[in-house]
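Hi all, long-time lurker, first post. I run a small reading group and we've been trying to get comfortable going from sequence to structure in the token notation. Rather than ask abstract questions, I figured I'd post a concrete chain and ask someone more experienced to write out its structure so we can walk through it together at our next meeting. Sequence below, copied exactly:
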Amino acid sequence: MKYRREMRFVFTRSWPLTFNFRLLAFGVQLLAFGFWLASCSPKKERLPILGERIFNGTDTVYHAIAPFQFVDQDGSRITNETFRDKIYVADFFFTTCRTICPIMKTQMLRIYEATKDMPDVLILSHTIDPEYDTVGLLHDFARRLGVEARRWHFVTGVKDSIYKIAQTSYFATAMEDKTEPDGFIHSGAFLLIDKQGRIRGKYDGTKEDEVNRLIEDIERLRNE
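-- Answer (accepted) --
Happy to help. Here is the structure in token form:
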């Protein structure tokens, strides 16, 4: 009888210990599997830097947006400094456009809403009809859209300066064309600019799937 009691005692004391070791081993295996799964997950590559690049002998110099100076819908002076340490999305439009601009503004509103909790993301829309699109008119245009100038700047300025920066800095089409129904021609491109003023993506602002990709790329760029 004494022998049987001692065996029962050994069994009841050793079983929980064995169980704990098994549980611990399972946890280690599960953790190792998690690390393996994470290592096998595809890593998103950095967004490309678009435009020409020059190697100066010691470093690579990438294309960046040239210095500019415009005025926004609140009459504020807007320059490159406005976007220091900011990511921004740029486009070109005019308020009387009846073709692609309404679609572009609908899609840009999606970006505006998607980035409302991102203080480092702004929007910059250049009018290509500065003679008509005055500061006051742009103010009314922005008010009708329900957007704030601190996050979305609608800018006007010298026409030649707008056209030049569109074509040589953003690689976007923007010009007068009397053969067009509204007298102007411009691309529907949205340009994603990083905190160093470099172009990191170009998207068709009239297509929802392209804008979806742009919104995802903004997040990617913020995490670089």
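A couple of things your group might point at:
The chain has two domains: 1-43, 53-222.
The helical segments are 2-40, 101-114, 135-145, 159-168, 208-222.
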